[in-house]
Design brief:
elongated; mainly beta; 2 domains; single chain; 13% helix; five-stranded antiparallel β-sheet; 157 residues; 13 strands; 2 helices; SH3 type barrels
């Protein structure tokens, strides 16, 4: 089960003026620029839209044990590969070992109540929410929502 933030949960919305500090990692669709680059100057832009980020349920915590979520073992393999971890299994992993491997590698797992507190979902955060704005030539530019800030003096809609 994939989940992102719901509309209105994020601190930045369409039309907000934000400050993108120097050194921020920017992703762009502009074919004449590198796909990702660091901003050389601070800039103020208007948010066109936000992307909600992604989290995924990797397991359910029963009072006595963990139960694997609906993820296929290849999804676990891809997550491990993207985070530079060895994946020692050729098929379905034992969920307790996999969660221990994530914790040992410093990958944060968040436990949230489900079914009225009877169980807990164990969530793995995949990517942060981000903001998008129209860059030069009308190509989209995007930055992590944690790397930018609302510009209070320029927030006039």
């Amino acid at each position: 089960m994939l989940k992102g933030h719901q509309k209105g949960e994020l601190p930045l919305q369409k039309g907000d003026r934000i400050r993108v500090p120097r050194g921020t990692l920017i992703r762009t669709t502009n074919p004449s620029k590198p796909r990702e680059y660091r901003s050389k100057v601070s800039r103020t832009v208007r948010v066109d839209h936000t992307l909600s980020g992604q989290s995924i349920v990797v397991a359910f915590k029963h009072p006595t044990r963990y139960i694997r979520g609906s993820m296929h073992w290849r999804d676990f393999y891809n997550i491990c590969q993207n985070r530079g971890l060895d994946y020692p299994y050729q098929q379905e992993p034992p969920i307790d070992e996999l969660l221990a491997m994530f914790k040992e590698a410093g990958i944060e797992l968040e436990e949230r109540d489900a079914l009225g507190g009877k169980y807990q979902n164990v969530w793995l955060h995949l990517n942060n929410p981000s903001v998008r704005w129209a860059g030069s030539g009308g190509y989209w530019c995007e930055a992590d929502i944690n790397d930018v800030g609302k510009h209070p003096q320029l927030d006039i809609r």
